[in-house]
Amino acid sequence: GKHSFWINTQQQLTQQGNDPKRGLYISFNGVLNDKATTTVQSTQQLALWYKGAFDSRPNDSIGFGLANYVVDERARDRQIAIDESRGYDQYDA
User: Fold this and answer.
1) Cβ of 18: how many Cβ atoms within 10 Å?
2) In this structure, are residues 21 and 52 in contact, taking their beta carbons and an 8 Å threshold?
3) Please, are residues 56 and 64 in contact by the beta-carbon 8 Å criterion?
4) Which residue of 7, 14, 42, 44 pairs with 23 in a disulfide if CB–CB is 3.0 to 4.6 A?
């Protein structure tokens, strides 16, 4: 059995003028994966973007987002062991 749970939300926060499609938006995406079957345990993303900032380009968007990825501890420990077995233990050189 493999499973994942996710949530995705999006909301328009402001409207520019009389155009209901232009304005500031926010979105959140979160995923929780089955630790036994995946390397990435969970992810979270938060984004803000503005659609239609310029009258001459009403369909263009500009945005900013942040993301966080949590790697499963077993996968991390396995990769560290592989690196050490190959002599890779100094990363700041």
Assistant:
1) 6
2) yes
3) no
4) 14
